[in-house]
Design a protein that fits this description.
The complex is a heterodimer of chains A (about 170) and B (about 190).
Chain A: H1 5-15, H2 23-61, H3 67-72, H4 77-96, H5 104-124, H6 127-132, H7 135-148, H8 151-159
Chain B: H1 8-17, H2 23-42, H3 45-61, H4 72-91, H5 109-115, H6 118-131, H7 134-145, H8 150-157, H9 161-179, H10 183-186
Classes of the chains: A mainly alpha (about 170), B mainly alpha (about 190).
Chain lengths: ~170, ~190
């Protein structure tokens, strides 16, 4: 050993006035991480719900049905955002919750399945309809519809209803 | 204060409760082990000393984040490991494969294993391990030089225990292709 590591380290700690970070700092960091994780789980579940709900909504307005039509209306770009959210959740779980002990693939599948199935359950429930009854959220759903449902498909379906530019605010769902 | 009777975790609890008093005992316990580990990882004794100093300072600053129900050695090795990896990535001063002594042929491998003294054998093994990619190098060093269990390696490298096992097995097989000697013959 070229230098007395112990002496030098202790001297540096004292000389540079290096302090031990207090317990509350770590508790606060943990709370912050849990909060961010919870928000991401809720946001991810809601986003997947939106993915499954938006085509159902459009089909209901256009009074159409069928799996083919459903797939043609699927808002694929939202999958990228959903994937990023799931990715961040997986990272946080592996990094801060000892999730590294489990295989990455298995962890990714379990978290994805939980969030996606949560989204499907919400989409199948009447939560979205209830939310849409609120004017502000109604605009949000309309904005999502216009932004993420493939335009061509939406126009085609709405054309049959003699709506050039469908006004969702006046169109009843049921 | 007599710190010898304390286990690592008890000592850390004492340090946490006494605002850093007793930290020098942690340095006493770990400086040689960590220096050996980081030296094997970096192959540069001067950088290794700096890394160890940074490791102890970081451990000191973050001592309150350590959960005394877990194993302290894995925690401090993890800090040293991260710092060593950062240093390696900064320098990228890997030893060329040409630096490794000529691989032994299967016929004279037995004779060679007798001829090699322990230190020389270990150095040869270190050179061979140096040529392996990080994914094999890290678990092999921890397993064979630091004598860590799979569970501890899993905590240090933050990998599943099964992955640690697979990497050690594959790394050992790769070493065998160099010299026909088993890894145990070097140690």
């Amino acid at each position: 050993m070229k230098k007395d590591l112990k002496e030098e380290t202790l001297k540096k700690i004292q000389g540079d006035n290096i302090k031990i970070k207090p317990r509350w700092y770590f508790k606060l960091s943990k709370i912050l991480i849990y909060t961010i994780s919870a928000i991401l789980v809720i946001a991810g579940t809601y986003l997947f719900n939106l993915m499954f709900y938006l085509p159902m909504r459009t089909l209901r307005i256009a009074e159409k049905e069928g799996f083919g039509e459903y797939i043609s209306l699927f808002p694929w770009p939202l999958i990228i955002i959903g994937g990023v959210i799931v990715g961040v959740i997986i990272y946080l779980y592996r990094h801060y919750e000892g999730g590294y002990k489990k295989h990455l693939g298995i962890t990714a599948v379990i978290i994805s399945v939980l969030i996606i199935s949560g989204g499907i359950v919400i989409a199948k429930s009447n939560l979205n309809e209830k939310l849409e009854e609120r004017p502000r959220l109604k605009h949000f759903y309309e904005w999502n519809d216009k932004s993420f449902i493939p335009d061509k498909q939406r126009q085609r379906l709405y054309k049959n209803l003699n709506y050039n530019q469908p006004n969702m605010t006046t169109r009843p769902f049921n | 204060m007599e710190y010898e009777k304390f286990s690592d975790e008890e000592l850390v609890l004492y340090i946490q409760q006494n605002k850093g008093i007793g930290f020098e005992a942690i340095i006493d316990r770990y400086q040689t082990k960590l220096l050996r580990y980081v030296n094997t990882m970096c192959r540069d004794s001067e950088s290794a000393e700096d890394i160890i100093q940074e490791t102890f300072i970081s451990a000191y600053q973050n001592i309150n984040s350590f959960d005394v129900k877990r194993k302290f050695s894995s925690w401090i090795y993890r800090i040293a490991h991260n710092k060593a990896i950062n240093e390696i990535r900064k320098n990228k001063n890997k030893i060329s494969i040409d630096d490794i002594s000529e691989p032994a042929s299967p016929q004279d491998s037995a004779a060679l294993s007798k001829e090699l003294d322990h230190k020389q054998a270990r150095e040869t093994l270190e050179k061979i391990i140096d040529t392996l990619s990080e994914r094999y190098r890290e678990p092999l060093i921890l397993r064979f030089f630091e004598e860590k269990t799979y569970e501890e390696i899993s905590d240090i490298l933050q990998l599943p225990v099964s992955t640690v096992g697979v990497r050690i097995k594959r790394g050992t097989a790769k070493i065998k292709t160099f010299s026909n000697l088993k890894i145990e013959d070097y140690l």
